[in-house]
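Need a sequence for this fold. Nothing fancy.
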């Protein structure tokens, strides 16, 4: 209802976390295969991405209507064009990462809890302690470096 009545106000209250949009733009320019998997409705997420200044391909946006994140990830892993690729699943909800971690068919995905968003210091401490095994904690700086060993923001792409 809110977005229908006041889209500009709604968009203004839903800002991207600092630096995330820049890193996503750099990843896309650098040729990374980037997917967004969200529990928001696709039309709302598409509006947010556009408002953030991202030209994001709609076929790489998976939302509420596409099913649970675990099912979306399973579907992506089964795509022939993505076979053998390294997948990083970056999430701000520890419960979601635990669900992914519990599924053997998703064991090849590298799981990362960000140190911002919808998690608590207790969540971050659990990950830091190593008690969750395959889930790592990443900062915004780690996010910039993920998969490269250098910042996505430093890439010079023609």
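Here you go.
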């Amino acid at each position: 209802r809110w977005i229908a009545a006041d889209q500009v106000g709604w968009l203004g209250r839903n800002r991207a976390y600092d630096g995330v949009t820049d890193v996503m733009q750099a990843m896309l320019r650098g040729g990374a295969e980037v997917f967004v998997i969200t529990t928001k409705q696709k039309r709302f997420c598409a509006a947010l991405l556009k408002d953030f200044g991202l030209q994001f391909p709609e076929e790489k946006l998976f939302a509420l209507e596409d099913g649970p994140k675990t099912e979306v990830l399973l579907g992506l892993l089964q795509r022939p064009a993505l076979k053998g690729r390294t997948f990083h699943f970056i999430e701000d909800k520890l419960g979601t990462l635990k669900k992914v971690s519990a599924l053997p068919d998703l064991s090849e995905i590298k799981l990362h809890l960000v140190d911002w968003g919808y998690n608590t210091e207790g969540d971050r401490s659990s990950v830091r302690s190593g008690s969750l095994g395959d889930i790592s904690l990443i900062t915004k700086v780690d996010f910039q470096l993920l998969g490269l060993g250098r910042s996505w923001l430093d890439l010079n792409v023609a």
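For context: The chain has eight helices and five strands.
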